[in-house]
Design brief:
two-stranded antiparallel sheet
C-alpha cells in the first residue's frame, strides 16, 4: 500500500507537466526545464546521502576536499559538486531564457 502510494507520488512529480513552471519572483525558468530540475534535485539528494554514508566519521563535511578519501566517498563528493554546478548553470540559463522571452 505505502509502496504504491510512494510510486504514484513519484510518477506524478516526475511527469512532465508543462503548466507547472515555477516563478518565484527573480527566479523564473521556462516550462520545459522543470523535468530537468526535478531529476537533478533527486540525483543530488541521492549523491548527498551517498556522501554522508561513505565519508569518514571524524571528518566534517566542509573538510572533505582537504583530506585523502577512498574512491567511493570521493566519487560521491565530486559527483555531487559537479551536478550542483550543472544545476545552478541550468537555473541561470533558464532565468536568462525566461527574461529573453519577455521581450
Amino acid at each position: 500500500m505505502i509502496k504504491t502510494l510512494l510510486l504514484s507520488c513519484a510518477a506524478l512529480l516526475l511527469s512532465s507537466n508543462y503548466a507547472a513552471a515555477f516563478n518565484y519572483g527573480f527566479i523564473r525558468a521556462p516550462d520545459w526545464m522543470d523535468q530537468y530540475f526535478i531529476w537533478m534535485i533527486v540525483a543530488q539528494l541521492l549523491l548527498l546521502v551517498g556522501v554522508f554514508i561513505t565519508k569518514p566519521i571524524d571528518v566534517p563535511f566542509n573538510r572533505l576536499r582537504t583530506v585523502s578519501l577512498d574512491p567511493a566517498p570521493k566519487f560521491f563528493f565530486y559527483s555531487f559538486g559537479t551536478l550542483y554546478m550543472v544545476f545552478m548553470l541550468l537555473i541561470f540559463v533558464g532565468m536568462g531564457l525566461a527574461r529573453y522571452a519577455e521581450f
